[in-house]
Amino acid sequence: MATSVVSPSADELKSALVDLRAEHPTLGIAKLHELLLSANPFWTVSEKRTRKVLQSEGLTLSPSSAKPSTDGANSIHPSSRIIEGLDIEKWTTKVEVKYFGKTKGKGLVAKESIAAGEILWKEDPFILAPEWDLYDLQMSSLACGYCSTPLTNSPLVIPCPMSSSTTPCPVRFCSRLCLARSGRTHPLLCASQNPASAPLLHFARRNQWMALQALAQCTARVLIAQQQDEKTFSEDWEVVRALAQLGMEERVKSGWLGGAEPDRATWKKAHRIYVQAFQEPATEPEKKRLSKLLKKPLSKDVAHELFDYDRFLSGLGRMSLNLEAHGGLYILHSHINHSCMPNVSVRHLDQRTALSRITVIARQDIAPGEELFITYVNPEQPLDQRRRQLIEWGFGLCKCDRCVAEESETSEATVGKADVDDLEAELKAGLGVM
Ligand SMILES: [Zn+2]
Ligand SMILES: [Zn+2]
Ligand SMILES: [Zn+2]
């Protein structure tokens, strides 16, 4: 029986080529094209078309050599920019922000010699979208609504002061300090003060959609800041806008749709209830409550940046790219780039008092001018899997020292097993399961 030959759709071809590139990071276009055809015998694709897709995905090798260049010029990279006026000395004097150029964006480099084991800084989250087990504890009054630390019977624990018998809010805080800090986001996410936000939070929970929960937190923070003063608002707004992001098209190209995130119909629905939560509640009583919290009108520009559908999607993308493994968004931490052989690690050491606070520690000696790196993927995975995962997340082909070394010496691993075991233990201890 004859089976007809078909021309794959643009999406099919892209995803096949992204996979192939991840498996064969160093092959030239002609070889990759051959592999594509042998893996998909019923496809008809010209080499020219393969080349075009690889080019538009940023997955071609540099023309001068068969090996990927290390400057990252050919990979997809999230764009990011420097946060104007960011005072990093409030966290540390040991590092500084460096802008590496359009492709790579920003990063952190050491300003002085740093010794292995040294604490570089501690940081509380800009916003926190805790892992679901902690979120569930928060929503059942068992973990602090600000820092997510599981609550004890301490007399310091304070229930949400706005909770009422008609519209109860289950959230409690571990101290006055946490209650005060929660004022930057909680009012707009409080079941009592802004009941219109409840469907959004439930929707994020039901779909286990961390980026949506984080975006809800972020939007709440920006809107509340806007009600305060110009300085508070412009600082927060600047932080959000400077976060690394990929355009939606780039995210889709790099396999975002094929990943764990919900499909387009779900995005639409999420957008509708997001707008209902913060801008246009569905019922009159909800509108009234929201208008009590948001008295100052939002400028047209900001409203557009927050609520337009395409901006909402970019917002979700920003969250996905910048959240720490436990769901916090940290201003300084979000500057650290990835390496599969990181020189700093991120821990949650204040487990009893401030679970969401991170401590950034040097894993090894770091010389002045050297860049700081964390790992975004489980470093125990082999080269191909690490690269594939990073490509899927939109970071392009990883060309960190370890990847480049492993690629050229595939017969002999260049990273000791002990180091990998060490990293694995660290991921389990400090970052949870990725
Ligand atoms: Zn707390
Ligand atoms: Zn509340
Ligand atoms: Zn790598």
Descriptive overview:
This protein is mainly alpha-helical. It folds into three domains: 10-56; 88-124 and 331-431, Beta Complex (Beta-clip-like); 127-229 and 266-329, no CATH class. The chain contains 17 helices and eleven strands. It has a three-stranded antiparallel beta sheet with strand order 3-10-9. A two-stranded antiparallel sheet has the order 1-2. Strand 1 and strand 2 (106-110) form a beta hairpin. The model is unreliable at 62-74 and 428-434 (pLDDT under 50). The structure holds zinc ion (3 copies). Residues 56-75 are annotated as: Disordered. Residues 57-75 have a biased composition (Polar residues).
What is the strand and helix layout of this fold?
Layout: H1 10-23, H2 29-39, H3 47-56, E1 95-99, E2 106-110, E3 119-123, E4 127-128, H4 132-139, E5 158-159, E6 172-173, H5 176-182, H6 186-189, H7 198-206, H8 210-227, H9 230-242, H10 248-253, H11 264-278, H12 284-293, H13 300-307, H14 309-322, E7 328-329, E8 337-338, E9 344-347, E10 358-362, E11 373-374, H15 383-393, H16 401-408, H17 417-431
Parallel strand pairs: 8-11
Antiparallel strand pairs: 1-2, 3-10, 4-7, 5-6, 9-10
Helix pairs in contact: 1-15, 7-8, 7-11, 8-9, 8-14, 13-14
This protein binds zinc ion (3 copies).
Report strand order across the widest sheet: 3-10-9
Strand content: 5-15%
Measure the end-to-end span: 47 Å
Approximate helicity band: 40-55%
InterPro entries: SET_dom, SET_dom_sf
Keywords: Methyltransferase, S-adenosyl-L-methionine, Transferase
Pfam families: SET
Catalytic activity: L-lysyl-[histone] + S-adenosyl-L-methionine = N(6)-methyl-L-lysyl-[histone] + S-adenosyl-L-homocysteine + H(+)
